């Protein structure tokens, strides 16, 4: 077992804690979000479990209807620390008019897609300042929304279902300025993740092109 040296700067420790928080919410929160309510069902606190269950049922379609992005949550200082850890930088090579909607392809997938999370799901890399008037969303597997409590966190980030109907919902209608980011290689590409080696899964991934053509 290795421990961080004592001379590691405080800002670096805070950056590490920010990344750890994200990893915990991705991997461990879904486990505890199931086990804890099961335990509470046999206690007087079970009323809160049933209340959340009712809310979960009522709010089930939110990931399919544009999520619920919250500026205050996306702007928390923890996300600046998160992006500084790697570091993650957002470089603009073209203007995006808020009068149009966009599909943004992202690659490679990686293990936990840290890059696209930092740039599109938070303001740690300054997305809103770089692309004013554009509301970012990130499409992810439906299964990621099944876990209680994590579903609320994900929709606050602007994560939506990767289902065709969900993506179409964000790209059509009167509201403009939406940018839906899709990690094109999906879970299959994640298995090819390796340091300094980018194996992309693209040849069979043409659905996003069809949606782009249909939505303009």
From TrEMBL:
Cross-referenced InterPro entries, in alphabetical order? DAGAT
* MF terms in GO: diacylglycerol O-acyltransferase activity
Q: Which domain of life is it from?
A: Eukaryota
Q: What is its EC number?
A: 2.3.1.20
The pathway where this protein functions is: Lipid metabolism; Glycerolipid metabolism; triacylglycerol biosynthesis
Q: Classify the main location.
A: endoplasmic reticulum
Q: Which PANTHER family does the entry mention?
A: ACYLTRANSFERASE (PTHR12317:SF0), DIACYLGLYCEROL O-ACYLTRANSFERASE (PTHR12317)
Designated name of the protein: diacylglycerol O-acyltransferase
Q: Which organism is it from?
A: Steinernema glaseri
Organism lineage: Eukaryota, Metazoa, Ecdysozoa, Nematoda, Chromadorea
């Amino acid at each position: 077992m290795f421990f961080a040296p004592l001379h590691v700067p405080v800002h670096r420790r805070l950056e590490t804690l920010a990344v750890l928080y994200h990893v915990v919410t991705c991997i461990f929160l879904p486990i505890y979000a199931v086990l804890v309510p099961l335990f509470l069902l046999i206690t007087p606190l079970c009323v809160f479990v049933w209340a959340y269950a009712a809310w979960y049922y009522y709010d089930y379609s939110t990931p399919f209807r544009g999520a619920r992005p919250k500026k205050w949550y996306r702007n928390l200082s923890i996300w600046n620390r998160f992006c500084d850890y790697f570091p993650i930088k957002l470089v603009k090579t073209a203007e995006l008019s808020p009068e149009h909607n966009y599909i943004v392809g992202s690659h490679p997938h990686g293990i936990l897609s840290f890059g696209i999370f930092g740039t599109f799901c938070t303001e740690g890399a300054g997305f809103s300042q770089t692309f004013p008037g554009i509301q970012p969303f990130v499409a992810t597997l439906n299964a990621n929304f099944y876990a209680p409590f994590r579903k609320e966190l994900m929709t606050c980030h602007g994560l939506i279902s990767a289902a065709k109907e969900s993506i179409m919902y964000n790209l059509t209608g009167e509201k403009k300025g939406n940018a839906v980011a899709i990690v094109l290689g999906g879970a299959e590409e994640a298995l090819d993740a390796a340091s300094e080696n980018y194996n992309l899964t693209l040849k069979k991934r043409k659905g996003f092109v069809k949606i782009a053509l249909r939505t303009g």
